[in-house]
Write a structure and sequence with these properties.
60s Ribosomal Protein L30, Chain: A, 2 domains, single chain, seven-stranded mixed beta sheet, five-stranded mixed beta sheet, globular, 10 helices
């Protein structure tokens, strides 16, 4: 039903009857200094792919790389505790996993979930006239770079950590309730990159306005100082031929919209008449509100996204 040949977030295999098995894998290097928070972020990020498909997680397995001769094993213990805390919040157990000795720490999860086969949400169903909704603010890539350079305040680190540690479970549940057309989660390819994938998979185009996009406070000032990850710059270069960019937008604003995210929100294409109800139902479910950020349009030209 879904596999590596497309750009969906997880593999989906139909089982006997009406059920489908949904499975994903993700892991990465630390992006914050606190090992417990890193474990939480990595686990939340891995679980997100399951929620983006409208599925419910069942269990997970750890994936670990750790320099056992260079760092105290207590650090690894904190990473695993962080991951376990998010698995518990998601209502699942981590049933084991695999570890290797490596010079650079890495952590993540294999997550297995299930869904009703006829309710699996892919990124290929967006329809002209749909509203685009985003469930978390943007900016984690820029903040991670600021942390590495010692340029991030503790308040900014705390805010970004809260964003990245927020499960997309509530958004995933509401996607099924409100019969969304398509969805994906916003991660490494940034908002523009993942929206482009949705448009290409759905055979549609999209319209975005910078002033409608939610960002963590303080992101623009960091970007204006050149604190931008290389992945964000590559994202913008990658989408440049497929996005009609308003010349009024500055390079900083473009980079903010292309920022490579970790454990970002759900990007949802939903029928216009259901968007307000979704946003209303989502209110108060997490620390962050869901926001309308654009509209799905007809058209399959090379310029898939109009961004002004």
């Amino acid at each position: 039903m879904a596999d590596f040949t497309g750009s969906d977030d997880a593999a989906v295999v139909r089982l006997d009857g009406d059920k489908a098995l949904v499975q994903t894998l993700d892991f990465f290097t630390p992006i914050v200094d606190d090992p417990f928070a890193f474990g939480q972020i990595a686990a939340t990020n891995s679980l997100s792919d399951i929620y983006a498909m409208g599925a419910t997680p069942l269990f997970a397995l750890n994936i670990v790389a750790f320099p056992k001769d260079d760092l105290p094993m207590e650090i690894l213990g904190e990473i695993l505790k962080g991951g376990a805390s998010k698995a518990k919040e998601a209502g699942i157990n981590i049933l084991g996993g695999h570890s290797i000795d490596d010079k650079e720490p890495k952590y993540g999860l294999v997550v297995t979930g299930e869904a009703e086969a006829d309710q699996v949400v892919t990124n290929g169903g967006a329809q002209a006239g749909d509203a685009l909704v985003l469930t978390k603010p943007l900016g984690s890539g820029i903040i991670a770079t600021a942390i590495k350079r010692g340029e991030a305040s503790q308040d900014l680190i705390d805010e970004a950590t809260a964003v990245m540690c927020t499960l997309n479970a509530e958004g995933g549940k509401l996607m099924i309730k409100h019969d969304v057309s398509a969805a994906t989660d916003v991660t490494g390819f940034g908002l523009l990159g993942h929206l482009l994938e949705m448009c290409e998979a759905s055979g549609v185009s999209a319209e975005l306005h910078f002033t409608d996009l939610p960002f963590v406070d303080g992101i623009q000032s960091l970007a204006e100082r050149g604190i931008v990850p290389g992945g964000t710059k590559r994202n913008l270069e990658h989408v440049s031929e497929s996005v009609h960019l308003d010349p009024e937008l500055s390079e900083v604003q473009l980079l903010m919209a292309a920022d490579a995210q970790t454990s970002g929100g759900l990007l949802i294409s939903i029928p216009e008449e259901k968007a307000d109800d979704f946003i209303s139902d989502f209110e108060g479910k997490t620390l962050f509100p869901a926001c309308r950020i654009g509209t799905i349009k007809t058209g399959t030209d090379q310029k898939r996204i109009s961004f002004s």
